[in-house]
Amino acid sequence: MRATVMFGAGDVRIETLPDARTIEPTDAVVVVSRACICGSDLWPYKTMEHSETGRRMGHEAIGVVESVGADVRAVKVGDLVVMPFAYSDGTCTFCRAGLQTSCIHGGFFGVVGMDGAQAEAVRVPQADGTLFVLPVGKDHALMPSLLTLSDVMGTGHHAAVAAKVAPGKKVAVIGDGAVGLCGVIAARRLGAEQIIILGRHADRIALAREFGATDVVSERGDEAIERVRELTGGFGVHSVLECVGLEQSMLTAISIARPGGAVGRVGVPQGETMPASLPAFYGNITVSGGPAPVRAYIDELLPDVLEGRIEPGRVFDRVISLDEVPDGYRAMNERESIKVMVEP
Ligand SMILES: [Zn+2]
Question: Cα separation of 159 and 156, whole Å?
Fold first, then answer.
């Protein structure tokens, strides 16, 4: 089968590899109908050291179950499924608490030693706990929005939950990538009164407004902090969705949270230390978040997608074949595209 492998920064290739097959009795093999390129795939695209063996890429997919191991019960051959970016058994103490990204038998797709979803097929460990069977056919018009349940919509929702968004709250979203845009959808869905998007790309800002952003702050650093304070009566916001992961964005996040506010961070931190620890302490600001347990959120978000109340699939502005994936990375890295969908 053909699959995407990254060998180093800027070096993404489509390789012919052995076909995906079940290894453990709890595995399933999913033939990928749709996958996509994630903003987090761009970090290794910028920085990965050269590797002879490379790393399989992709962690978001919808596909059809092709085969299952002997112990798989909840999914069967022919089912159309969403594959969350992390696999999980669904039964351990953390899964039962709704924190599948901390599953004691879990892990992530698209890392060294695991299959990736930017491929014709993928081996899915812990299939019963991981895969979510969709009640629609694979040519359904809502496929792009359903695909976002594998990561970006669930991640934007997680940022909003971690930032304690609730009816009447003032909210800021840092980052205008696909996760930030889904964070706007999530904040509106949870009843936020004011939603300030911090971002600078015209096409993304326009979409953020359509998703429910009420204000736009395109400044950076101290000027951005000043603008958010002006827009919120001088106090800052109750909830900040930090969807970038850089030191500067975290510093901004804590600086625009009002006393007693919360920061929900879902951008993978690119540094080891947390900035602005002292202001966070004196403001009694909660800093929460992490890898989103998107598997836990599908039940809640799916009806809104199926009934058209939210349209997160609009973050996709380009559709490509598997052969075009290397150019898809380039396009996203150069901000030519918000998010690229792959039809293998
Ligand atoms: Zn578990």
Answer: 5
Adjacent-strand bridge partners of 286: 262
Specify the pLDDT at position 270. Answer: 83
Give pLDDT, residue 328: 98
Reported pTM: 0.97
How many A from CA of 127 to the centre of ligand 1?
A: 12
Q: What pLDDT digit, counting tens, does each position of 83-123 carry?
A: 999 999 999 999 999 999 999 999 999 998 899 999 999 99
Compute the distance from residue 241 Cα to the ligand 1 centre, in Å.
26
Output the pLDDT for position 130: 98
Tens-digit pLDDT profile for residues 149-186: 999 999 999 999 999 999 999 999 999 999 999 999 99
- Dihedral (CA of 103, 106, 111, 117) sign: negative
CA of 70 to the centre of ligand 1 (A): 19
Look at residue 139 in the predicted model and tell me its pLDDT. 86
Antiparallel, parallel or unpaired: β 194-198 and 121-124: unpaired
Across 249-259, b (16+ Cβ under 10 Å) vs e yields bbbbbbbbbbe
Average pLDDT over residues 191-219: 97
Ligand 1 centroid to 333 CA: how many Å?
34
